[in-house]
Amino acid sequence: MHSQVIVEQIIIAGIIVLVGALGSWAKIINEQAKQSISKVVFNISLPLLIMTTFLEMDISRKILVDGFWALIFSLLAFLLMYTVGKLTSRLFNLPEKSAAVHEVHTMFGNIVFLGFPLIAALYPQKEGIFFATIFYMVTSALQWTYAVFRLKGEGNTTLRERIKPLLNPNTVAFLLGLIFFFLQLDFPDTLQTPLKSIGSITGPLALMYVGASLAGTKIKGILGRYDLYALSVNKLLLIPFLLLLIINFVVAQFQLELSEMAQTVIVLQAAMPCMSMIVIMAKNYNAADDRASENVFLTTVLSLFTLPLVYFLSTVVL
Question: Which long-range contacts does 237-240 make (Cβ < 8 Å, 24+ apart)?
C-alpha cells in the first residue's frame, strides 16, 4: 500500500516540478520570482510546518526513544556520506574546487524542497515530519559549518561565519516546537489553523522552485562527467542501501526500540538528490557552481525513479 503511495507522490511531485520548469521557460517564474519562492519557503512556510507539527504531537516514551535513535542514525548517515564522498573525489582525481562540490553534494540532499513534501505526503502522521526535522537539524549544523569550510577553502572562514547561519527561522521553529512539545501547549484554533495552512504550502512551492531551478541547466555539460554518474549512484542508491543494512543490523543486534517509520524516514532523507542550496553556496564561495547545477539536475531527475526503489527496499529489509 505504501509503495503505491510513494509512487503516486513521486508522480505528483514530478508534475509540480514540471509546472515549475514550464513556468521558468515561459518566463513567468524569473530569477527574482525564484528567489522570492525560496525565501518564502525557507523563512515562512517551512518554519510554520515544523512548529505546527510539534504542536499536534502527543508526547510519549516511544516517540522520545525513536527521536533519540533517529538523531544517532542521522549522524551515522552523514559519516557514511562524508566517507564515500572523500573516496570517490580522490578516485576521480578531481581538481580542488570540483572535489569540494562533489564531496559536499554527496553529503547534502534536497531534504527541504523535496524531502519534506514527500515525507509529509507519505506519512500523514506527524511523527514523520518530526523524524525528518531531526535529520534536517543535523544537515543544517553540518551545512553551515563543514560545507562552508569545504567550499570556501581551508583557513578562509572564521568560526563566527560558520556558526551564525545556524540561527535561522527553521532552527528557531524547531527549538520553539520542542518547547511546545514538551510542555504540551495548545494554541487556539483561530491561531493554529492559519499557521498550519501556511505551513501546508511548503510542498508545492518547494517543488515548483526545484522545477524552475532545473529549467536553466545545460544538459550538454553532463555528458562525459563520469564523476557525476558515480555521484548519482552513490547518493541515490549505494549510500541509502548501505545505511539501511547498517540500521537494520544495529537494531536487530542490540534489539533497539526504533519504529519502522523512523528508520525509513532517515533512509529516505539520505536518498534525496543533491541539495540545490549548494549551487548558491558554491557560487558565493567561488567553487565549481556549474558542476553543482549539473549535479542537482541529473540526481533530481533520476530520483523520480530511485526513491520508490529505495522505499521498496526499506520495506523489504525492515
Answer: 237/271, 237/306, 237/309, 237/310, 238/84, 239/77, 239/80, 239/81, 239/84, 239/106, 239/270, 239/271, 240/267, 240/268, 240/270, 240/271, 240/310, 240/313
Q: How far apart are CA 18 and CA 223, in angstroms?
A: 22
Rg of the chain over Cα atoms, rounded to whole angstroms, equals 19
Q: Residue 310's pLDDT is what?
A: 92
Gap between the Cα atoms of 25 and 21, Å rounded: 6
Distance in Å from the first CA to the final CA of the chain: 16
Spatial separation of the C-alpha atoms in residues 106 and 283, rounded to whole Å? 18
Which DSSP helix (H) or strand (E) runs through 266? helix 260-270
What residue segments make up the domains of the chain, in order of their start? 2-313
Architecture of domain 2-313: Up-down Bundle (1.20)
Q: For residues 245 and 254, what is the distance between their CA atoms, to the nearest angstrom?
A: 14
Distance from C-alpha of 268 to C-alpha of 260, rounded to nearest angstrom: 12
Tell which phi-psi region holds residue 155, choosing left (phi > 0), alpha (psi between -120 and 50) or beta: left
**Tens-place pLDDT, residues 50-86:** 888 888 777 788 888 999 999 999 999 999 999 999 9
Higher pLDDT, 165 or 80: 80
Q: Where are the alpha helices (H) located in 92-168, listed in sequence order? A: 96-107, 116-122, 126-142, 148-152, 159-163
Q: Who contacts 126 (Cβ-Cβ below 8 Å, separation ≥6)? A: 53, 54, 56, 57
Q: Which three cell numbers mark 224?
A: 562525459
